[in-house]
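tool=predict chain=A
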Amino acid sequence: MGIFDEKKQISRISFREKLKGVSGQIPGSPGRRYSMKERVKIEKELFGPKFGGHISEKEFKYGLKKLSRERLKCKTLEEKRSVERKIRYLKKIGGI
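tool=predict ok
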């Protein structure tokens, strides 16, 4: 069950509230969690003002694709792992 199961798009405020409400547990990384501030920071970085007041499922997938491209540009293993964690977390909450 993901964020976009019921609707094709959700408001930015609703998206932020859902990020605050879901668990910060990162899939595939036992014991690692994102704090509420980190989750909101991820939302602001990926889905900035250019997306407007609503975020559609298509824009959400675009954000994941953007992270995948960023992962390829990472120079160190730790940077790559950090980006991979973000991708896994967003896929989990997005239901992808």
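The first helix runs from residue 12 to 21. The chain is about 60% helix and 5% strand.
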